[in-house]
Amino acid sequence: MPELPEVETFARQIRPLVLNKPITTVTVTPKGERMIAPLSPAELTAALPGNSFSALKRHGKFLIFELADNKQIVAHLRMSGRLVITSKKPSRDKHNRLWIAFEDGSILNFLDTRRFGTFQLIGKPGDHKGLNQLGPDALDPAWTPRTFHKALQKFNKAIYKVLLDQSAIAGIGNIYANEALFRSKIHPLSPAKALSEKQAGNLLHNIIDILSTALEFKGTTLIDSSYRDSEGSAGEFRTLLQVYGKAGNNCVNCAEQIRRIRIGGRSVFYCQNCQKA
DNA sequence: AGGGGTACCTGCGGGC
DNA sequence: TGCCCGCAGGTACCCC
User: Can you tell me the distance from the alpha carbon of A212 to that of A207, in angstroms, rounded to the nearest whole number?
Assistant: First the structure.
């Protein structure tokens, strides 16, 4: 569920509460065991106590907890993961899968309803396959219209699929891909290669604007969705969505109704009239 | 290489 | 109320 703005929101909220604090215990529930694979709970538990996190970084939708001894924990929230801090006692949420207790009594809890999330200890930077395959972060200041246009040329597929391809640009998920294409007036099935540098530049601008604004709003919580930030608050970017989840609604720019199609098994929303490029 | 399908899980809403 | 279906913000893996 979480995309870049939601993951960054978690990072900002928990960072000051978990850095440079000695770890005392690690607890992995039976249903949390898959999430730490290939390590066993015993192996993870043996590696952490006495250690502490020296930094918490984010790349795309991954969170990287750096340990003082050069090891790292690479975490991914996938569809339903959440990170919550409690004091003295672990969260009693039924979906609390694993937690790390610190010397000062605070506890980092990884909640995950669907258990697709991962929380993997690696020996040194570079040892995580998923992380190694990532392209530049979507909010990396190094992006320019030219480099983005050039990156798109490498992919012989629909622009929608490239935006979701984490090896091309990291951090965009379904909601923000839909919104960025709508604002850029680009049809989701347009070949990525066909975009001009001007179109690519405009798309990049809209991606950055949407992700930055969504971050200010602490992400997007859809109606009936379970996403809540680390403090339990809903993300308010929902009010700014223009197409995602709005099949049948009138387009905000014209008289067309927003359509829903399937691309690669996922729901994609767009305006047939506005998104012709 | 790119497309599609399935799998991994749990929960929710809609239709009957 | 209960059941069955489709759906979900992600990604990996298989097959063609």
Answer: 8
Q: CA A123, CA A70: separation in Å to the nearest integer?
A: 7
pTM of the model: 0.97
User: Is A66 in the active site?
Assistant: no
Considering the candidates A2, A5, A136, A188, report the single residue annotated as catalytic. A2
Q: Please state whether strand B lies within 7 Å of residue A38 at its CB atom.
A: no
Cα→Cα distances A28→A25, A42, A271, Å: 10, 9, 46
pLDDT in tens, A153-212: 999 999 999 999 999 999 999 999 999 999 999 999 999 999 999 999 999 999 999 999
Of A108, A58, A55, nearest to A86 by C-alpha is: A108
Does the active-site annotation cover A3? Answer: yes
Under a CB-based contact definition with an 8 Å cutoff, are residues A259 and A247 in contact? yes
**What phi, psi does A126 have (nearest 5°)?**
100, -5
Active-site entry in A8, A58, A61, A179: A61
Helix, strand counts (H, E) of chain A: 7, 10
The overall longest dimension of chain A from CA atoms, in Å, is: 62
